[in-house]
Amino acid sequence: MRIFNTSGPCNPEQHYTVMREALMAQGQALVDHGRFFTIFAPRQSGKTTYFQLLFRQLPYLPVRVSFEGMRTLGRAKFYETFARRLQRGLSEQGIGVEFTFADQVDLQNSLEVAKWPNQRLVLVIDEFEEVAPDVLGELLHVFRDIYQYKQHYALQSLLLVGVSTLAELVVSSASPFNVVDQLQIPYFTEAEVADLI
What we know:
By secondary structure, the protein is α/β, with parallel strands linked by helices. The protein is about 40% helix and about 15% strand. The protein has helices spanning about 10-20, 20-30, 45-55, 75-90, 105-110, 135-150, 165-170, 190-195, and strands spanning about 35-40, 60-65, 120-125, 155-160, 180-185. The protein has a 5-stranded parallel β-sheet with strand order 2-3-4-1-5. α5 (about 105-110) packs parallel to α6.
């Protein structure tokens, strides 16, 4: 039998963090070690809540971008939209910058250390499965190159968030994205649901 403290208001975010403490610690360790990884789970299972809470525990600059609705965009429009959404994500963190991406090279150049003195960025791309098929391969090659030459880039960590694993998105025999760390957000257990209620 559990006894709940009802003397004060319940803080759902704090409760979630405590309830999934091991999962939060695992994500923080991956970021601290500079890993590029995927977070995947079915819809409405807590992915967004998870990375928003993770952001609050990190000593880095978190930036969120969503690819929602971008699957059908042509290559030029995809990069234009990516730049605009990245600007918006940085603006939400109080940083005003302007980007113009004509292609994947412009994206890669925008993340160079020289452009981010004394900053380490954690880039979260939500709804990654909505990436335009025309750019998936070249985008993954850029992330791989950044990962392999991290000393030249301000990107501490990259989180690709969605309902699919990267392996399910890349339909080739060899993925150019050679970083295979995955963090699966499981459905709440029966005990966790009882705690939430």
